[in-house]
Amino acid sequence: MKNLITGIHGFVGSHLADCLLAQNEEVTGLARSMTDNGNVMHIEDKIQVWVADVNDRVALKKILAEVRPERVYHLAAMSFPPDAEKEGSEAFATNFTGTLNLLQAVKELQLNCRVLFAGSSEAYGIVTEQENPVKETQILQPVSLYGVSKASAEMLAQSYFLRDGLDVVRVRPFNHIGPRQNSRFVCSAFSRQIAMIEKGADAVMQTGNLESYRDFMDVRDTVRAYTAIMEKAGAGEVFNVCSGQAVSVQSILDGLLEISGIPIRIERDNKLYREEEPVRVAGDLSLLTEKTGWRPEIPLKQTLHDLLSHWRENS
């Protein structure tokens, strides 16, 4: 099976490439440049990467015409919510218009392929305690600009299924974590700080809100879910990709500190708080399990161990 991953150089894209290669699949990727390729250097001889921005409609269509993939995993996005708040126009250009360009090219080229659109649980917005764990039937009420951009792009993807009959499936991943994640995200931020302290930096960590609860899951389980959905889901369906459990950010920090074993002073940094954050969010994975048989396999403790090991080697 010929697979195309947009955003292959990214955190999730690189792990998806690993997963597909392990399944003896053919992997082609799309990236904005060849310079930021650290996440895929270990497999660069096994994949083909094309350079183009999803906002470049002409270049994107030309690549799709050349590759003619059977499955497209559309992961390319502005993925860090604070960036989207600062650069709203750019976030919509990448997350919405990039999706439009991809789907329109698939339609115009009459490609016989399935497209997986990677949305976000941020599309749900603020959820109440009673609405946890969140089901796919939950009304989308995004609050952040990132969530709005993802919800809008998801609706667009569904419209191509409903109107044009494109074989599109949608996913709403929750908080996936693991090796190679950018240190701007909370679990990687903690891990990087601890790794640097282990190497002699001041034994002080800056943290944001430790009282919030999130649905954290290993990215390697996430990409396994994506491949299972591509294989077994029906066209037009949407799935939460999650662990089903809400875990406090405090417990993530405690777990990393326990693995490290060194004494560290914790300091709160108000700049790291996001005002619109809900207190607790967990996803309902029952639909995904029912349709595909997939379940998360990697324990959180193992994920944290692997994440800290990554930053010990890369900081």
Q: What features would you describe in this structure?
A:
By secondary structure, the protein is α/β, with parallel strands linked by helices. The chain folds into two domains: 2-177 and 216-244 and 284-292, 3-Layer(aba) Sandwich (Rossmann fold), CATH 3.40.50; 186-213 and 246-281 and 300-313, Alpha-Beta Complex (UDP-galactose 4-epimerase, domain 1), CATH 3.90.25. The protein contains ten helices and 13 strands. The protein has helices spanning 11-22, 57-67, 81-86, 88-109, 145-164, 186-198, 219-232, 249-260, 286-292, 300-313, and strands at 2-6, 26-31, 48-51, 71-74, 114-118, 167-173, 175-177, 204-207, 213-214, 216-218, 238-241, 247-248, 265-268. The strands form four sheets. The chain has a seven-stranded parallel sheet with strand order 3-2-1-4-5-6-11, with helices on both faces. Strand 1 (2-6), helix 1 (11-22) and strand 2 form a beta-alpha-beta unit. Helix 8 packs across helix 10. The radius of gyration is 19 Å and the shape is globular. 46% of the residues are buried. The mean pLDDT is 96.
